[in-house]
Amino acid sequence: MTSVITGDIINSxxxxxxxxWLNPLxxxxxxxxxxxxxxxIYRGDSFQVEISQPQYALxxxxxxxxxxxxxxxxxxxxxxxxGEKNFDTPKITEANGEVFINSGEMFExxxxxxxxxxxxxxxxxxxxxxxxxxxxxxxxxxxxSTATAQIVTASIINRTLSQKELGEKIERTQSxxxxxxxxxxxxxxxxLVAFYEKCITKKIS
Length: 205
Prior knowledge:
This protein is an alpha+beta fold. Helix content is about 55%, strand content about 15%. A five-stranded mixed beta sheet has the order 2-3-1-4-5. Helix 3 links the parallel strand 4 and strand 5. The longest helix has 19 residues.
């Protein structure tokens, strides 16, 4: 059992220099493995990445969201798929199996639904619950400013640090960090991530 995120960058053509978002995205995707086996960027602004432990797929999606929204005008649409894959291939975009069908079909549906985040797994009842939560969370996620997204990224990477310690590390005041986390509804989003991890871990164990 594995998970795959299929996504594309919204408004990518409105940014003159694609390296502004492309380089940070490549660096982030590189944390989960090597390209093109584990992740690939294709058609200029679409991407696919395998998160081998499905319980961490939502956290990965939130990190990708924060990474892309750190650049003005941009957003990202992502379909999370959970399932089996048939066999390993040198390129993730050439692989097949249940997980790729789930991720790809969910991604295509997002465009029609005008939503930015959804999941399809082997457990339809759980999907219904999680997708309702994702829709509610997206009311907040989709409104993150660039400054808020940057602090969310730093907060996730440095989760063991206090607001004061994080502020010192990224050269911001504690109040700036605190206000940004409140605007981002950071604690609530992390609660959702923890709930997702618990649900998926229970299903796959």
